[in-house]
Fold these 2 entries.
Entry 1:
Amino acid sequence: MNATENNTAQVISSEALLAHYQGHRNLTRRTIEAFPEKEFFSHSIGGMRTFAEMVMELLGIAGPGMQEIVSGKTAPLNEHVDHGNSKAKILELWDVATEQINVLWPQIPTARFQENITLFGMYKGTVISSIFYFIDNEIHHRGQGFVYLRSLGVEPPAFYER
């Protein structure tokens, strides 16, 4: 296989990967919705962060990370968003980030997925490994959110319904 073929070989299309990612984002959104308002910002187990704090991390990564991938302009990671202790505001910010991902995604040429980048000025990898991190990190924190919900007596959304 020559170098050009190697750079564009795919197992999954860009569009399919976006659909997979957005499926996870949809499930995380439904997890946020399932939380009682007060507990979303206050409930913790074993010294872990609240789910609201975890979601702020996800918000700090998703939209800004995609913006950095597309523009090449580095900005520091910011995990603190102004939400006024309002779950509705967090959901609004989640929806804005989801739309931002949808708009930016098609601007990533297929060959770019293999390029080396340093996100937020400190995380080295390729574009694809960074996107996989976005997805994996979200799944990890959503799993913590599921544990929190169960500890509150709330049934989390079915993990397979993305």
Note: The CA atoms of residues 44 and 50 lie 5 Å apart.
Entry 2:
Amino acid sequence: MILNTMNLSDQDIDRILQMAWEDRTPFEAIETQFGLPEKEVIALMRSQMKRSSFEMWRKRMNGRTTKHKSLRDNTVERFHCSQQRSISLNKIAKR
């Protein structure tokens, strides 16, 4: 799989990694903001993390309903916790 990260800045990659690590941020939010589908996010995580950290992350994410919008409760319509402050690098917040 070839990653489409050539047009991503280091800040974008850092933000993608942060969003992927968060339990409540669905993969669809990452795809909306950065254009990377789940498989490419997983490949990016694999390339940017130590093997043990990646395996721990995959174990946590496997089957987690909050990481997939289609598995979430229909009442949840946001990408982040309502308590979370606005993130300056969040591309959607700047629109």
Note: The helical segments are 10-21, 27-34, 38-48, 51-61.
